[in-house]
Amino acid sequence: MQRCTKPAAMLLPAPGVDLEKWAVVACDQYTSQSDYWHKVQELVGDAPSTLRLTLPEIWLEEPDAPERIKTIGQTMEEYQENGLLRPTAPGMMLVRRQMEGVSAPRWGLVMAVDLEAYDYREGSRSLIRPTERTVPERIPARLAVREAATLELPHILLLIDDPQQSVIESVAAVCNELEQVYDTPLMLGGGQLTGWFIPEGALTEKIQQALEALAAPEHLSKRYGAPADAPALQFATGDGNHSMAAARARWEQIRETLTPQQRLEHPARWALAEVVNLQDESLEIEPIHRLVAGIDPKTVLQDAVSYFSAQGVQAQLLKQAPESEDPWAIRWVAGENTGWLCIRPGGRWALPVAALQAFLDDRMPHWQGAKPDYIHGEETLRALCTGAQSIGFVLPEFRKEDLFRGVVLDGVLPRKTFSMGRAQDKRYYMEARRIMP
């Protein structure tokens, strides 16, 4: 199996830098809340900060975005030249994130991953795959930021499914034997972030071997019922997939200018990411419900039965909940009315959300005036279904193991399948890495 991880030389803020002002939440958060980013600007003031090394996506489409991107590139060079960023030896970073209101901390490992092992296209058989469909139209704006950058600052979270806790937790158990390189509160409800450096050596090799064991086809077959010829899967992207897609697009540009030997060594071939165990106690995976507005609910339900019948899959409508627990029983809500759409498991879908989304994608163009939406929280969904021309589908609880099962068996999950934590729980920028020689 191709090895797609490695220790990396990183850049950390120099001693004396205020880390609470340095670390800023992932740029793809609070995209409709300009007040949040104005608060960040006020808190940071003139201090060194990753706010000046990244472009919050709320400003990505603004007229001055090109000028902002140019300034980011200049600031990256200034921070290195004036010593605000200090290099580490090659290694990995063990990180512990204590979120507000969450009892257990989230542990992760920051390392470099090979972009040659990542493919976001539908039907991908690569070692690193997205959990949800990538929207190609979202890549160019993010690519423009990376084209002007000499550094990368990761907010990518890559997931492993490790119920035996053989990778990250085994390292966390010996964190007192490692060098702690930062420990800081995070701004605006972000909690606390602590990092320990792991120099390249026996421990990083042990980590890589444990990751490879999780990706082996025989493991995928035993855990998910995957066929014997199923391709190995090492990581599934949890957060930051479009940023990773932009990194891959940038690497493809650079790769065309290099000799075969240079392609092996160029730093832009790799992306820094944090690896997190899907089974981490702090990690909450919640389903995202479906809403269809502007159409008679009876039409939607009748079309659902017809659609699945045409696919050779049995489906029926029930007024009462099924007597036995059935993960393929999807409750619908329309005003004061409710019921269940029961789909017999199987066919070409591994998960009920995949079956439901396939139906909606197929029929939506035929429902004149209908508008789909993706809703977080059942109470919010019910509130939006009070009118006579709206219907909501309450997706079953999303089991953690279903995430990898869906990627292994279906290839990729439907868009907006799950939500992974609150905005303030997303990754805050701390480490950087140089991506240009």
Question: Can you describe this structure in just a few lines?
Answer:
By secondary structure, the chain is of the alpha+beta class.
Give the percentage of residues in beta strands. 15-25%
Low-confidence stretches are none
Task: Specify the number of helices.
Answer: 13
- Rg: 23 Å
Total of domains: 2
Morphology call: globular
Taking the sheet with the most strands, its summary is: 9 strands, mixed
Q: How many strands appear in the DSSP assignment? A: 20
- Percentage of residues assigned to helices: 25-40%
Structural class: alpha+beta
Description:
The protein is an alpha+beta fold and 437 residues long. The chain contains 13 helices and 20 strands. It has helices at 19-22, 34-44, 65-81, 139-147, 168-172, 202-215, 217-224, 241-255, 260-265, 297-310, 352-363, 378-384, 400-410, and strands at 5-6, 11-13, 85-87, 91-98, 106-114, 128-130, 151-152, 157-160, 179-186, 191-199, 235-239, 270-277, 285-293, 315-318, 329-334, 337-343, 371-376, 390-394, 418-420, 433-434. The strands form four sheets. Strands 1, 4, 5, 6, 8, 9, 10, 11 and 12 form a nine-stranded mixed beta sheet that branches. Strands 13, 14, 15, 16, 17, 18 and 19 form a seven-stranded antiparallel beta sheet that branches. The chain has a two-stranded antiparallel sheet with strand order 2-3. Helix 4 crosses helix 8. The longest helix is centred in the N-terminal third of the chain and has 17 residues, at 65-81. The chain is globular and about 65 Å long. The protein starts with a strand and ends with a strand. The model has no long low-confidence stretch (mean pLDDT 92). Pfam families: DUF1015.
